[in-house]
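thought: user wants a sequence for this fold. calling inverse folding tool.
action: design(structure=
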């Protein structure tokens, strides 16, 4: 009886093993195991812990993109995808070699049919740097020029500085923050919203998404001014020493300057006057001075040439003079503009007129009494006195003098004339 029970147990065990084997065969035939590889992105955990400590974490060598091999039954694998895999790297586990272990798991509900999830990429590699923050003034760089006859005045920006942060190695590359303004053909003010660009010391444009800027773009306004070339003139004050006089020869160097302003401000501007910039008081020779023309420009008018420092050299010529009296025969007087129907004669034709003249010594040798022209203008007298018809009679009239260049007089001459009918 005992031997019979033992035989039954053996048969039962064999039956179980046989059934299990048949089940395994059936499973492998109907729902076999499969292995598939999936591309997966690793999620970083607890990044804020390092960021709040002033650290910047950057994944290197694309180590956050890994290949994961999953093995499981076909019934599971047929509906399995990369989105069912969770790959994480906890930065709290960062080691001294800047590596973080990668942990793999799945959110697939039929987890019991997943035999394994593994990857040859077991560590995430990172670079840890200090976060650096700087502030840069905005520079405006203009390219191209306004239309001929116009120039750029000044450029203003709504904000004049921006804050930049990022890994120290990237921030240290920044030399300047620039706005590029194109003014090609402009004839009036230009207002635009322009992007802010970063450049290194070699003027290479920096494009680094690790950098954070407080501003990405800024409103810019460029003032465009009209230009105009105008002469420079100067005036004097004071009286030279006795025996000397101002020759009225004034030289300004440069003689012309180009100025800029809004078109309506330039429309009426004909010249720049340097008023009383030279004092000739008691001068006995040529006087020179240098003035800054910018102090004499009208409001809102500027010099167009930025390279010109505004310095103008002004020279006033002072020369020695002479005075003498000359006798001029009355018969040298010319009668001009005589109306029809009347006759004009000078009385006392044999008399002489005494005239005190002065001039520059340098011109004295050229001076001759016959060069002095004397005239009596009859119509001029009638118009001045509002006379329509000149009655017969004797009149004392002004004599107009025409003196040679460099000669003058402070005297006035009058002569008697007789008016009669023809």
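)
observation: tool returned 422 residues.
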């Amino acid at each position: 009886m005992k031997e019979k029970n033992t035989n039954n147990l053996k048969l039962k065990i064999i039956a179980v093993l046989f059934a299990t084997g048949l089940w395994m065969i059936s499973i492998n035939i109907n729902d076999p195991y499969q292995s598939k590889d999936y591309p997966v992105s690793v999620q970083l955990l607890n990044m804020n812990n390092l960021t709040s400590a002033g650290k910047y974490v950057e994944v290197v060598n694309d180590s956050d993109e890994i290949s994961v091999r999953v093995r499981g039954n076909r019934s599971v694998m047929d509906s399995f995808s990369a989105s069912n895999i969770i790959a994480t790297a906890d930065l709290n586990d960062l080691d001294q070699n800047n590596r973080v272990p990668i942990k793999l798991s799945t959110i697939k509900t039929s987890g019991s049919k997943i035999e394994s999830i593994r990857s040859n990429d077991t560590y995430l590699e990172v670079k840890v740097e200090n976060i650096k923050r700087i502030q840069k003034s905005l520079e405006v760089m203009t390219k191209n020029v306004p239309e001929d006859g116009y120039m750029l005045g000044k450029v203003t920006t709504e904000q004049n500085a921006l804050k930049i942060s990022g890994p120290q190695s990237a921030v240290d590359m920044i030399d300047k923050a620039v706005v590029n303004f194109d003014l090609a053909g402009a004839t009036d003010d230009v207002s635009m919203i322009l992007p802010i660009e970063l450049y290194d010391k070699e003027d290479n444009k920096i494009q680094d998404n690790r950098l954070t800027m407080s501003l990405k773009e800024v409103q810019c306004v460029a003032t465009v001014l009209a230009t105009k070339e105008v002469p420079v003139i100067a005036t004097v004050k004071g009286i030279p020493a006795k025996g000397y006089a101002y020759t009225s020869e004034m030289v300004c160097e440069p003689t012309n300057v180009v100025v800029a302003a809004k078109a309506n401000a330039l429309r009426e501007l004909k010249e720049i006057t340097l008023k009383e910039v030279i004092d000739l008081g008691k001068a006995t020779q040529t006087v020179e001075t240098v003035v800054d023309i910018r102090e004499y420009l009208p409001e809102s008018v500027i010099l167009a040439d930025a390279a010109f420092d505004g310095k103008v050299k002004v020279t006033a010529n002072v020369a020695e003079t002479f005075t003498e009296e000359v006798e001029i025969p009355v018969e040298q007087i010319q009668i001009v503009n005589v109306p029809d129907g009347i006759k004009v004669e000078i009385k006392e034709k044999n008399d002489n007129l005494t005239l005190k003249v002065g001039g520059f010594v340098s011109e004295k040798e050229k001076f001759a009494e016959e060069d002095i022209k004397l005239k009596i203008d009859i119509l001029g007298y009638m118009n001045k006195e509002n006379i329509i018809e000149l009655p017969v009679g004797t009149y004392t009239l002004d004599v107009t003098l025409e003196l040679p260049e460099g000669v003058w007089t402070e005297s006035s001459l009058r002569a008697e004339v007789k008016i009669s009918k023809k």
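thought: summarizing for user.
answer: Here is the designed sequence. The radius of gyration is 52 Å.
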